[in-house]
Write a structure and sequence with these properties.
The chain is of the alpha/beta class. The protein is built from 13 helices and 22 strands. A hairpin with a 4-residue loop joins strand 4 and strand 5. The longest helix has 25 residues.
């Protein structure tokens, strides 16, 4: 079988893979990207663009507009009676996703990236095989191979996803109707975002979570505030509960659960169940054993600066340890390719933000108070509520606050936690500040435009030294 030679072959076309391919093309490397598409589809972009980040944001935005039209508009003096057209909502979601995936195709052409559609696998040192849908095999040779195959939803014993009545995140993006009752298993980011979509469109939503709190890893004060906000919107929580099974019929699902601490089992009846307990790396069937790589028991590939144990084989994104976030994969993609090209690739893992795109939004970067206390690190905190922010008041969106954590001795910003309007767009300011190891005073003494929500970032920084002026 004749081989086509490349400098770099990337397996996976999601945010990690396609950004790695583009950066390689920019640096003059001969590069190929192997991607089989989602569920046999032909589009690039991986889970994020096709059945993850992008379509979920399309539905979050549309459902938020519907909820505003159903209630808040009247307060603003706009009188309408909205009618939900779910098929049109799904259509505009698909159109937006389609435009984005075509954009990646354009960028591949612009940067001279060869695309191979099919399942990629390592076939020995410097070799990749691409198996097309019809079984045809194409052989590629490369100096370096990058594994960027991403992740898939985690399963749960006793809960069989059929994408009919019991769905994962993919199925929850395309339900044919608004559920009368949707039960979400898992109180993490994905479950809460999708649960809030269907709640705003009229569903009763119940979240069942194994832990005694929502959003593990989030600053505890933020998590409590966030749960209160969602409860006020009508989402019910059953925390500290272990799901033991789910039985689906043609029109409903019967879900059983029991207290983690012990106690009698209970049953919930639902129209649909969303299983959203996390994701696991997709490292099966990649031929890693052909170069001596053995993923750990959870499926992750061990790396050192994106290098695996096999010479010339690299791994980035969800198949490696760390947060399963598209922007983390993008950062690693650029750094990995630059390292391959002989440059000084670098990722600051302490400054990778997290966001939940509900309403209110939640965003954070750096250390939580719990982490700083566990480290024994002395810190100061500054806090500012959106109730005292002029723009938030005018816009009737005063729920939430900004909290800044800074080193008690040096004043270096160590962590920032926000819940409120548009915080997904504002957390980037603190990412920049922390990348340059700024002090809270640097932000506090930087002029911010008035009236904007971003003034809350400055006022919270002022609060670290006790001179908040607007609250």
């Amino acid at each position: 079988m004749a081989e086509t030679n490349y400098d770099v072959v990337i397996i996976g076309g999601g945010p990690g893979g396609y950004n790695a391919a583009i950066r390689a093309g920019q640096l003059g490397l001969k590069v190929a990207c192997v991607d089989k598409g989602i569920d046999g589809g032909s589009t690039l972009g991986g889970t994020c663009l096709n059945v993850g980040c992008m379509p979920s944001k399309a539905l979050l935005h549309a459902s938020e507009m519907f909820a505003a039209a159903s209630g808040e508009f009247a307060t603003l003096g706009i009188e309408v009676t909205p009618k939900l057209n779910l098929s049109q909502m799904m259509k505009q979601k698909a159109e937006s996703v389609g435009a984005l995936t075509k954009g990646i195709e354009f960028l591949f052409k612009k940067n001279k990236v060869d695309r191979f559609q099919g399942a990629g696998r390592v076939a020995g040192a410097g070799k990749v095989e691409v198996v097309a849908a019809d079984g045809a095999v194409t052989a590629l040779a490369a100096k370096d191979i990058v594994i960027a195959t991403g992740s898939v939803p985690t399963g749960l014993p006793g809960v069989a996803v059929d994408q009919q009545r019991i769905v994962d995140s993919t199925g929850a993006l395309s339900l044919p109707e608004v559920p009368g009752h949707l039960v979400v298993i898992g109180a993490g980011i994905i479950g809460l975002e999708l649960g809030s979509v269907w709640r705003r469109l009229g569903a009763k939503v119940t979240v069942v979570e194994f832990l005694d709190r929502i959003t593990p890893g989030m600053d505890a004060e933020m998590a409590k505030t966030f749960q209160r906000a969602l409860t006020k919107q009508g989402i019910a929580f059953k925390l500290g509960m272990k799901v033991t099974g789910a039985t689906a019929s043609k029109k409903a699902v019967s879900l059983t659960y029991e207290p983690v601490a012990g106690g009698a089992a209970e049953t919930l009846e639902a129209d649909y169940v969303l299983l959203a307990i996390g994701r696991r790396p997709w490292t099966e069937g990649l031929g890693l054993e052909s170069v001596g790589i053995t993923p750990d028991k959870r499926g992750f590939i061990e790396t050192d600066h994106w290098k695996t144990s096999a010479p010339g084989v690299w791994a980035i994104g969800d198949v490696t340890h760390g947060p399963m976030l598209a922007h983390k994969a993008e950062e690693e993609a650029v750094a990995c390719i630059e390292a391959i090209a002989g440059k000084a690739g670098h990722v600051n893992y302490g400054v990778i933000p997290s966001v939940i795109y509900t309403s209110p939004e939640v965003a954070w970067v750096g250390k939580t108070e719990e982490e700083l206390k566990a480290e024994g690190r002395a810190y100061k905190a500054g806090k500012f509520p959106f109730t005292a922010n002029s723009r938030a008041k005018i816009n009737h969106e005063t729920e939430g606050f900004v909290k800044v954590l800074a080193d008690a001795a040096t004043d270096e910003v160590l962590g920032v936690h926000m819940i409120g309007p548009s915080v997904s767009e504002m957390v980037g300011e603190y990412c920049v500040a922390m990348e340059f190891r700024a002090a809270s005073e640097d932000v506090a003494r930087t002029c911010h435009p008035h009236p904007t929500r971003s003034e809350a970032l400055r006022q919270a920084a002022m609060g670290v030294e006790g001179w908040t002026m607007q609250a």
